[in-house]
Write a structure and sequence with these properties.
The protein contains 12 helices and 21 strands. It has about 450 residues and is of the alpha/beta class. It folds into 3 domains: about 210 residues, 3-Layer(bba) Sandwich (FAD/NAD(P)-binding domain); about 110 residues, 3-Layer(bba) Sandwich (FAD/NAD(P)-binding domain), CATH 3.50.50.60; about 110 residues, FAD/NAD-linked reductase, C-terminal dimerisation domain (Enolase-like, domain 1). α1 runs parallel beside α4, α3 runs antiparallel to α4 and α3 runs parallel beside α5. The chain is globular and about 65 Å long. It starts with a strand and ends with a helix.
Length: about 450
């Protein structure tokens, strides 16, 4: 069968590329081995944020008395929470599928493997289906990423990755989360709210290591206040399983310690999922990910690689942008996105969001800067919401007054960061941003307070 474009992977990048190309009149086949929407819609971004939101509702009900509202016996029903999560995912997946079909995209269920520069072999998902071969002028590889797994640890019903936690019939009383990065912190946040005793073990000196030290310190303070145990600069030396549960051994400068847990969640990062796709066999260059140029072409020009597969980012919106860039290139057009300045969000409680350069990056570049900071505790809307933890800070170049970085930890940080993204992307100075008025009482007054500090 001959088509114009075959896209392998129906996550945000693959789906967006398919829609754009099909609407332009191209014959497009979209190959997906799991579910339409990929990791993001089915196991990652969307379901985890649904669980985060459910945890937020629970927190509000538990704290309602201070707002004059009496709610007794508020608790989480794990199966009901999962049902809510499933409804959201199903609704969005059905909507995306209908949009693809309406645009004329042919969806094929199976694993896509490259035979040559124009041919994709599809191994069917069901054993009673026959394998098939698709020939195309262009191929877009959008297979996403998969969780890293510690080689010495065997996954089981008790020891899982972020994909499998939804399979648990009930929440455990205790859990060890291995990894203090974005994924581990989000799971830790909502599991703690649901009443699970959470311990995080992280080899690096601090959690949220990609953020500035003061952001990491504030999150650590808040999570520990809520009962999360955080072990940093600590290695998981062993994790064994017996009929009673899990036995963990931790190693740090103080020596070896042991603890027992009911479950464990492995969150040590993700890797590009190009295994068994036949890339090297046909001459596609692979390094930490699939090597691409600025147009997202691989070493074989008619084959593109996007999103997580490139090893550059595991953010859904970067994948989406990549998909649109590749699709425009195939159509002989150009599409530009600012892939240097974009929001970085962590959906903990409180949320974290940042953009631009961090303090560490500014120091490494030799750029002299000043920090302008405002505390949530002094903001009227934050006090009304009863969410006074956190701060907003802006990093400003001394010689030019330009805003080069921003970080927020606090209520609605993921919404608040857009103003900083726009300011940095447009090269605004602190003086120019200060001229823009905010409403009252609103959280974005934190920008004004920081700039006037």
């Amino acid at each position: 069968m001959k088509v114009d474009i075959v896209i392998v992977g129906a996550g945000p990048g693959g789906a967006d590329a398919a829609l754009l190309l099909a609407k332009a009149g191209k014959k497009v086949v979209l190959v997906e081995k799991d579910e339409i929407g990929g990791e993001c819609l089915n196991w990652g971004c969307v379901p985890t944020k649904a669980l985060v939101h459910a945890a937020e509702i629970l927190d509000i009900t538990k704290e309602s008395k201070r707002f004059g509202i009496e709610i007794s016996d508020a608790k989480a029903d794990w199966q009901a929470v999962l049902a809510y999560k499933n409804r959201i995912c199903t609704m969005l997946r059905m909507g995306l599928t209908k949009s693809l079909e309406a645009a004329g995209v042919e969806i094929v269920k199976g694993f896509g493997k490259l035979k040559d520069k124009n041919t994709v072999l599809i191994e069917p998902s069901l054993s009673n289906e026959a394998a098939r071969s698709l020939e195309a002028d262009y191929i877009i590889l959008a297979a996403g990423s998969a969780p890293f797994v510690i080689p010495s640890i065997t996954l089981s019903e008790r020891i899982v990755t972020s994909r499998n936690i939804y399979d648990w019939p009930e929440l455990p009383k205790s859990i060890l989360i291995v990894g203090g990065g974005v994924i581990g912190l989000e799971f830790a946040s909502f599991l703690n709210a649901f009443g699970v005793a959470v311990t995080i073990v992280e080899m690096l000196p601090r959690i949220a290591n990609t953020e500035d030290e003061d952001v990491s310190a504030e999150l650590t303070r808040i999570m520990e206040r809520r009962g999360v145990k955080i072990l940093t600069s600590t290695k998981l030396a062993a994790l064994t399983e017996d009929e009673k549960g899990l036995n963990a051994k931790f190693e740090n400068e103080a020596g070896l310690t042991e603890a027992t847990f009911e479950k464990a969640l492995i969150c040590i990062g993700r890797r590009p999922a190009f295994s068994q796709m036949g890339l090297a066999e046909i001459g596609i260059t692979v390094e930490k990910g699939v090597k691409v140029n600025a147009k997202l072409q691989t070493s074989i020009p008619n084959i593109y690689a996007i999103g997580d597969l490139t090893g550059e980012s595991i953010l859904a919106y970067i994948s989406s942008a990549h998909g649109k860039i590749a699709a425009h290139e195939i159509l002989g057009k150009e599409k530009k996105y600012n892939l240097e300045v974009f929001p970085r969000c962590i959906f903990t409680n409180p949320e974290i969001a940042s953009c631009g350069l961090t303090e560490k990056q500014l120091t490494e570049k030799g750029i002299e800067y000043e920090v302008k900071k405002a505390m949530y505790a002094a903001n009227g809307k934050a006090s009304i919401h009863g969410k006074r933890d956190g701060f907003l800070k802006l990093l400003i170049e001394k010689s030019t007054d330009k805003i080069l970085g921003a970080a927020i930890i606090g209520d609605s940080a993921n919404l608040m960061i857009d103003k900083a993204v726009l300011a940095i992307a447009q090269g605004m100075t602190a003086g120019q941003l200060e001229e823009i008025l905010a409403g009252h009482p609103v959280l974005s007054e934190l920008y004004t307070a920081a700039l006037e500090s």
